[in-house]
Amino acid sequence: MWFNIVLHNHGGIEEAGRLGPLIDYMRQCLSICGHETTVVYDQLYEDAINLYFEHFIDAGQLGEMAWFKKTTGARIGTIATELMVKGTIPYARHGMYVVYADDREERIKARLDGFDDALKHMDFLWSFLPRTAENYAGAVPLSAYFPVGSTGASNLLALRSPKDLDIIFFGTWTPHRAGILDRFAERGVVVTTAGPGFPAGHLPDALLDSMMNRAKIALNLTLANSSKMTNGIDPRFASCMRIKALLDRNVAIVSEDIPLDNPYADFMTTTTIDQMVDACIALLGSDHWKEIGAANAAQFHQQMDVNRVCAPVIDQTLSALAIR
């Protein structure tokens, strides 16, 4: 089947670069599972399954999409990459919009309202997180959990880099993450950081790739902890694209405990926040980080091969579309 990935709902054409890792993953995944893909800015095709990454805040674009679907019978689906549950994005106030303190509530509402409107025109929803898929089960004809799995050992492993960075973390600065990183600093343990809100800021792909290749250990820290619950919702979840990128490079991952939405628990070292610094020091002191990283990566590639975890979801979706 032909899947056509459409990007114009994420802003101007120059903004498409921000979606690079998502686009690469979906194209690799769909191709490995036997399907063709294209990537366009705003061209929908009648004969393709047109696929959007969730971000619908332009009512005009939704109107155009609805008109195209009505007049051509085109099939349209969307991918939700965020934790969206019970009418909220529970970590957004402490994560994705933490650098937009002045209007973050309006941003959250606009995003959720746009998503609800978009789902009225969607044939299916694929969600990277199980709770999102479950929450929207009644809003679309088909709502399915679509894992971020393994597309095979990355060819980046052929690149040789010095392992001169003991510990890294990349992601958006939040108070929760800063508090954990302060524990490392207090013990004299250096963590190299990057991402919005950190001094290094958001790194271009080439610099971030090099940073990951140089790392012995990478931290996986949630945006907010359970004390920041909204409507009783645990805001913690596994950062799918970050974890996949690190496992592709055989990096040993040390993560805080994530009780929900974490299919990667078997491929990382999980600790309490209080024990995290000691766990990293022990890995560095014993040099076990190298063998642990390689073993976890191999297990990930075997257990979460996209042919095993994603192909059945794609087949289920195609069957549902054929029936309707």
- Sequence of strands across the biggest β-sheet: 2-1-3-4-5-6
> Which secondary-structure class do the elements indicate?
alpha/beta
Q: Helix share of residues?
A: 25-40%
The main β sheet shows up as: 6 strands, parallel
* Unreliable stretches: none
Q: What distance lies between the first and last C-alpha atoms, to the nearest angstrom? A: 17 Å
Number of strands: 11
Give the averaged pLDDT, no decimals.
Answer: 90
How large, in whole angstroms, is the Cα Rg? Answer: 20 Å
How do the SSEs run, as a string of H and E?
EHEEHEHEHEEHEHEHEEHHHH
Account of the 3D structure:
The strands form two sheets. Strands 2-1-3-4-5-6 form a six-stranded parallel β-sheet. A five-stranded parallel β-sheet has the order 8-7-9-10-11, sandwiched between helices. The chain is of the alpha/beta class and 324 residues long.
What's the quick description here?
This protein is an alpha/beta fold. It is built from 11 helices and 11 strands.
Write the layout of secondary structure elements.
Layout: E1 2-6, H1 20-32, E2 36-40, E3 49-53, H2 59-72, E4 75-80, H3 104-119, E5 124-127, H4 130-135, E6 143-145, E7 165-170, H5 175-186, E8 192-194, H6 205-214, E9 215-220, H7 240-247, E10 252-256, E11 269-271, H8 276-286, H9 288-303, H10 306-309, H11 311-323
Parallel strand pairs: 1-2, 1-3, 3-4, 4-5, 5-6, 7-8, 7-9, 9-10, 10-11
List keywords for this structure.
single chain; 324 residues; alpha/beta; six-stranded parallel sheet; five-stranded parallel sheet; 11 helices; globular
